[in-house]
Amino acid sequence: MSEAGLPEALVGALHELARVKRLLVALDFDGTLAPEVDDPAKARALPLAHEAVLRLRALPHTRVALVSGRALRSLEEVSGLPDDVLLVGSHGIELRLDNPEDAHVLDEAEQARVRVLDEVLGQVADSIDDVWLEPKPAGFALHTRLATEHNSRVAHLVALSEAQAEVDDLKIRQGKNVLEFAVRSTTKGEAVEHLRRYIDADAVLYAGDDVTDEDAFAALQAHDLGLKSGEGPTLANHRVAGPTEVAAVLDLLATYREGGVHEQ
Ligand SMILES: O=P(O)(O)OC[C@H]1O[C@H](O[C@H]2O[C@H](CO)[C@@H](O)[C@H](O)[C@H]2O)[C@H](O)[C@@H](O)[C@@H]1O
């Protein structure tokens, strides 16, 4: 372990990463910047992580992006970051880049499928204790965090079978105490590839904690750095225990890059 309490190999990789010319720092929100809480509206990035993001986005040739499963509007609210931080919501479906025309629009057929999903999943949530539905532009998250294990299992089974029976071509994702249904199948991996091209990045740091972040880790290249937050199988080449350590990583990366060692 280094002085910062981080693995030596990770500290070395951060030092290398801080030297590249154009750097993309792409970060998942819940479970990575923000500790998990029962009410998604109350999630906030740890102060050290928030501060490090602000320091990184102020540096030349450095862009920060949040890449989240949340709806874009929800991500804007909980992250509370300036407009020049790029935002990706709904697992890659919604983008807030530098121009308003980058915003997504669902076509009429997709909107009709969202309405059917609303009806089907709404009935599931209404009929099982402590299960609730979070609406998003292209679908819904069925939350079971506060439900008993039994109710959670029933909710997942019923929601899966009824939604698939009523709506074609659904993208279904399992997350932490949540089952997500969307009418578009964009992934965080596609989002990272899009962001890499968008800023013409020479290297990418991606940090995430959940199964859906694995698509982003799979999109990383040899000179990138993937950081898994918490337990579970991963394609990331580095791992830390959780949001506290992710904050320490971002703080150290900001310090190295502020040191002005990046290639010009
Ligand atoms: O991709 P992320 O930024 O990690 O977003 C994934 C989902 O995060 C939210 O749900 C999760 O965090 C909540 C707050 O800690 C927690 O209560 C819930 O159990 C977790 O599943 C969000 O509500 C979802 O829409 C996101 O897809």
UniProtKB/TrEMBL annotation:
The catalytic activity, as recorded, is:
alpha,alpha-trehalose 6-phosphate + H2O = alpha,alpha-trehalose + phosphate
Is Magnesium found in the keyword set?
Answer: yes
UniProtKB keywords:
Hydrolase, Magnesium, Metal-binding
Q: Which NCBIfam families match?
A: HAD-SF-IIB (TIGR01484), T6PP (TIGR00685)
Task: Tell me the GO BP annotations in alphabetical order.
Answer: trehalose biosynthetic process
Domain of life (superkingdom) = Bacteria
Name this polypeptide is given: Trehalose 6-phosphate phosphatase
Function of the protein = Removes the phosphate from trehalose 6-phosphate to produce free trehalose.
EC numbers: 3.1.3.12
User: Per the entry, which co-factors are needed?
Assistant: Mg(2+)
Which pathway does it serve?
Glycan biosynthesis; trehalose biosynthesis
Q: Which InterPro entries does the annotation name?
A: HAD-like_sf, HAD-SF_hydro_IIB, HAD_sf, OTSB-like, Trehalose_PPase
